[in-house]
């Protein structure tokens, strides 16, 4: 049984060509992965477009579903409603290092930053991979940021790669997952919504896949593993679309990511950092005042429901895809996380 063929499909909307966030035109994703005994970690980087993001920003907004997190850059995104760097995902103790790497890269591309121009707002999200990874070693640095940046492309690997290398999901192996959905509005325009998740949350008894509550059965099959007594994980959800939305509408879109997350059995536990960010590639906003601001015809709020539906479905699908693609991993001090397919090779028959 191959993993891709066995993955249940969520919802009634059609997937994009590759069922990845990069089905939104212009996007690219890259990984840098460390798989070295106690070091099971990495970096995942998302580029909204191939140009200079500081000079040509994209509209964005975020929703903090549960704020147990250590991200950098959210305050300015909330205030100004734009992205001006790639989005970086990594482990909790590497946020500072990745922010510095982003700043250095932005200065390299734009030497005026911090002098003739304003400073740059690095955007870095994190989850705690400390069960499988020696997070105290803080082994990630500029070279791993650069590797992820140089590896960006339209098609990318999912599962225990990049920032997802050491992540756990529902006490199984988690990591990077992605999906996309296409929509046609009542007005006739067609758009794509894509999601990418860094999936590191959940307690096994609540696991739900495609509406089927499989957690208790999976718990029986992992009887030798000591179960979690409380939620201590996190998830970062990135939603992208080519639909022309402003930052207020993108804020609404990011909130709907919580619908897809909750369908999998999440309840945004006390120790879980659950953050969703949404951005649009339909237009860019100039850094310099001598360039004109774009004149955009935004989607009417009364027509936006299909985008909400596509967000919920693609987020749920992305989480499932992360579970399906991840492989059993042994890390720090011999800690092990089994993959979903290793403990449930009959998963398709269970759904």
Automatic annotation (TrEMBL):
It comes from the Bacteria. GO terms for molecular function: aminopeptidase activity. This is Aminopeptidase. The keyword Hydrolase applies. InterPro entries: ArgJ-like_dom_sf, Peptidase_S58_DmpA. Pfam families: Peptidase_S58. Belongs to the peptidase S58 family. Keywords: Aminopeptidase, Hydrolase, Protease.
